[in-house]
Design goal:
The chain is an alpha/beta fold. It folds into 2 domains: about 200 residues, TIM Barrel (Alpha-Beta Barrel), CATH 3.20.20; about 130 residues, Lyase, Ornithine Decarboxylase, Chain A, domain 1, CATH 2.40.37. The strands form 5 sheets. Strands 3-4-5-6-7-8-9 form a 7-stranded parallel β-sheet. Strands 1, 11, 14, 17, 18 and 19 form a 6-stranded mixed β-sheet that branches. Strands 2-10 form a two-stranded parallel ribbon. The two termini are about 30 Å apart. Bound molecules: pyridoxal-5'-phosphate. The site of pyridoxal-5'-phosphate has 12 residues, from helix 10. Pyridoxal-5'-phosphate binds next to helix 10.
Length: about 375
Amino acid sequence: MDDANRAGAHLTVDLNALAANYAFLKSQLADDTVCAAVVKADAYGLGLEPVALRLAHSGCNSFFVALIDEAISLRSLLTEHNQKADIFLLNGVENGSESEIHQFGITPVLNSLAEIERWSSYAKQNGGCKAVLHLDTGMSRLGLDSRELNIFSDKPELADGIDITYLMSHLACADDRTATKNKKQRDLFNQYRNRLGIKKASLANSAGILLGAKYHYDLVRPGAGIYGIQPIINEINSLSQVVNLKGKILQIRTVDTGETVGYGATYQTPRTSRLATVAVGYGDGYFRTLGNRGFGYIGKTRVPVVGRVSMDLITFDITDIPEHEVTPGTMVELIGPHYSADNLAADAGTIGYEVLTGLGARYSRNYIGSL
Ligand SMILES: *Cc1c(COP(=O)(O)O)cnc(C)c1O
């Protein structure tokens, strides 16, 4: 049995689609706006190495990650492949991380006065320290709040030694084109920029790019859109699907009317039914909330998940599929052209981001397109 056949499901990541999405997002921007790529959480679960290399070969020279180890892995990978890039560390300068950040040429995002002071004191001794300054305009998560900003604008020497290359903030509701908070955050961001007199700025994630040029500034930070997740709700997705997931049928059985399926006996067959059990479960990131709610596809035919999702198994009702078309070993589309990660997320009660970052470690993985 080869590796692919041993696995319960095959995950295929289309790097050509990924590159097309990056090119599409970049095409929305003015020529002098930098299109960075957010590759935190193992490139949204799709694999840092293939994703970052393909993006680098597509002309991307700025990357954002969340954790210092992600930044260091990315730096090593890019260096190994003779690629130069700016690597921005969203989670900032934690106590004791200064010398590693410096050594690996990472640009931290400074999220508080404490981080500014920490990086400044390191910078004054060592030199050559860049940073992005993060201002909170409505997330209440990371970034200087208005109180900290007041202190900083009265005492800009707190950042002595630091070359602040960008001001940044993050939109809370960019996925909703009608949200009034978008413009409110932009206005506040502009006000803060004027006060600090730092010119270069970054505000937009994927959805922010699609909100229009006023949100673009000098650098944008798309993640989701690159991976094919629809950035703005209730709009047609103009991005290409990057992820395809097919689960393997282990067994097919016919059950009488009135039999129950799975734990808790939450599904009862309304007719004599043919059921297919597939070797994927919540242990693979296939959400348990998809029990009696999710779908798969066999060819062009939609088959519903019946009963609860188990750790390693799901059961589909395949009564509508002609018998000769399915056998054990037949692959069921779990994410693909008929049922996107966003579709699956909607049925699971979550967002495509969580579907991608939850993609299981047990899947066999295959990449389409060159690095
Ligand atoms: C994750 C993240 C992004 C990317 O957002 P998408 O919606 O995936 O495009 C951009 N900026 C910050 C600060 C983030 O944390």
